[in-house]
Amino acid sequence: MEKYALVIIDISRRGLDRPFSYLVPDNLRDRVRAGSIVMVPFGKGNTLRKGYVAGFSDSTDVPAEKIKEIAETVEPARGYTLEDDSEFYLRLAAWMKNRYGSTMATAMRTVLASRKTGTIRERRQIRLLTDREEAARHLEVYEKKHQTARARLLRELLDAPVLPWSLVTERLHVSASAVNALKRAGIIEVEKVQELRNPVHVSPSTQTGMELSPAQRRIVETVIADFDRMQKAGEGAAPGEEPAPPVSLIHGVTGSGKTEVYISIIRGICARGRQAIMLIPEISLTFQTLMRFYSHFGDRVSVVNSSLSEAERADQWERARRGEIDVIIGPRSALFTPFAKPGVIVIDEEHEHSYKNESMPKYQTREVAEQIARMHGAVLVLGSATPSLESYWRAQQGEIRLFRLQERLTGGTLPRVETVDMRAELQRGNKSMLSASLYEKIEDRLRRGQQSMLFINRRGYAGFVSCRSCGFVAKCPHCDVSLSLHGNGRLVCHYCGYERSAFRTCPECGSRYVLAMRAGTEKIEDALRETFPTARILRMDADTTRRKGSYEKILSAFSSEEADILLGTQMIVKGHDFPGVTLVGILMADLSLYGDDYRAAERTFQLLTQAAGRAGRGTEAGDVVIQTYQPDHYAIRHAANQDYEGFYREEIAYRRLLRYPPVAHMMAVQIQSEEEDAALRAANEIRLVLMKKNRAGLQIIGPSEGSYRKLRGLFRFVIYLKSEKYDTLISCKDLIEEMEAADRRPGGGLFRQTEVQFDFDPVNTF
Ligand code: ADP
Ligand code: ZN
Ligand code: ZN
């Protein structure tokens, strides 16, 4: 073994983001490998710091008397063995650092998320005590008494006699008092379990595999065949030389059988001795979906989500490492589950924005998943009812496979969709927020005892200005995104910084109704109560869900039909099925169109399509009313027709015209400092250096102020770069990193007071 270990110190500062040489003492020789976590003395005081071994060398520039020794290796608790996979994580971190621009230390921390250990804590679970017949008798009584929560719990327990507490209260929406009632009646007990807790105990196949439809079977067979071919092709490939993994996109509405396909693919891969990572955005992971996986894979599946404590999460990683499970279900971070050799990664709802990590490294889960698949020789499967433009574009280019699932298998007819032009309502003298049609329909549902959902689309909303009489919206002439109204009364573009004074009258129609849209859910709730005094109304938004568990409480109250109307923001359109809902009203459908970024139309289409899909899940056909000032906008038109293809064609034309992703790539260089002057000077300096390099096809926009000029005490500036070639952007990033690193050495200055971050193909504006 070479004499010196090259150690990356776990401090995220670019000036320190290089390997430092350390001697490996004899007693640690056997344990220090590439990727090992070690403690080393660092700096003047020789404080012990955590570090990652990046490699080894026989020589060093450091004078012999100055070289220090590694103090110890960090044995992650509970018998983790580092040797087997540490090199893998090192390579993955290096890939992320290069692609997204972060320090090596931060990248290591991200990919080693699973190495965190927590203290051992106990977990509660609920066990059915009675036999099935007695339980069924109790169930009957609860149903008669309309004690729906108790009945729901008992019904699940009849399927699976032991359920984790957290799943019951959070996913099944059963309150603690309902659980206690069953406990007092002697029907269940609440017990505590310890150590490497398995969130569920269900024996496999209470549900035997159903027969797949021909369309489903074709997908499963193709993906598995891809996998098998891939194994042959990848045999003996050197690290870094592995062939690109097969990627498939399943485009199918909710209820078209995607989950069933995922399960079959995962079965096939597990039968080949490999493991599966199943990513689902936390907000869409329903209890029913979880139970389907449990009933197929029993104890071999586990779930990680934010309701687990750190210790419980660490247990799941540990079970994965020990090979006790084959399938992990979870959000973004489950990607880093330390499986021996995953064979498939599935990303459900692949268009969801929660798949973009918004702290350094600002990675896109799809891309990292593909890289992991490449390194492990795995396949990647994406699924969505409204695929991201990125994925659909790649499918059109022939880079990835596209499958369609067209029918809804859940039954239920597609809803009738009506688009209401709110400008016409205004002309008729209706100044309220409800159109005549929506008003009538709500009243009708109240009379018939059916439920309605009212969705206020405020996503991406950033104080845009529009005309209520003709629908005109103030946009940037250069970037074609909405201008935002700032506190000083000016209209500003968040990409290029273009600025103008506010309009007093509409430049299109002369009306004086040019206003900044304000959409408070609370105000709307008040107005609704006034209009429908007898209706039982629930509101769900950031304010009413701040307390832990309140989100679940509202959903559970609505699903047990304790309210007539659920009013809320985008939170209410995800995942959950309410068969009692026969009307969905979309208020201010346009609001998200005026987001200050290029994804505004895509976001709107996705939200409206999802929201419309909430209606008519039960036996009755549903109604959807879309209220808008721009009925002709393509995002609204195609959403009303549930026409993804139509939307895609118009949207991709817009992206092509303005060189936005996926047609081109974009990099946001985000510059922050406590000193406004320093941030601006750094930004200008960066622009200058980039201009000098003058790369072909590179477009440099800005610097401009961030959409928040100042946030958490820091002044913010941003430069946007566009190029058809991702590599061009990477080389610009490298250049900026070099500037910064050089500046941090003695004699530098400007970058010492500033922090520079990178965001590739950004999802949110800075
Ligand atoms: P998605 O994931 O696209 O929403 P699911 O896989 O959940 O769709 O399927 C929707 C419903 O149809 C589920 O209740 C599922 O059990 C059922 N289902 C799926 N595939 C089949 C099939 N081949 N035969 C019968 N029912 C099916
Ligand atoms: Zn107008
Ligand atoms: Zn602009």
Would you mind describing this structure in some detail?
It is a single chain. This protein has 766 residues and is of the alpha/beta class. It folds into 5 domains: 112 residues, PriA, 3(prime) DNA-binding domain (GIY-YIG endonuclease), CATH 3.40.1440; 73 residues, no CATH class; 192 residues, P-loop containing nucleotide triphosphate hydrolases (Rossmann fold); 184 residues, Rossmann fold (3-Layer(aba) Sandwich), CATH 3.40.50.300; 96 residues, 2-Layer Sandwich (Alpha-Beta Plaits), CATH 3.30.70. Helix content is 33%, strand content 22%. The chain is built from 21 helices and 31 strands. The strands form 7 sheets. A 7-stranded parallel sheet has the order 12-13-11-14-15-10-16, sandwiched between helices. A 6-stranded mixed sheet has the order 5-2-1-4-3-6. The protein has a 6-stranded parallel sheet with strand order 17-27-26-18-25-24, with helices on both faces. Helix 1 packs antiparallel against helix 11. About 1% of the residues have low confidence. The structure holds adenosine-5'-diphosphate (ADP) and zinc ion (2 copies). Adenosine-5'-diphosphate (ADP) binds next to helix 8.
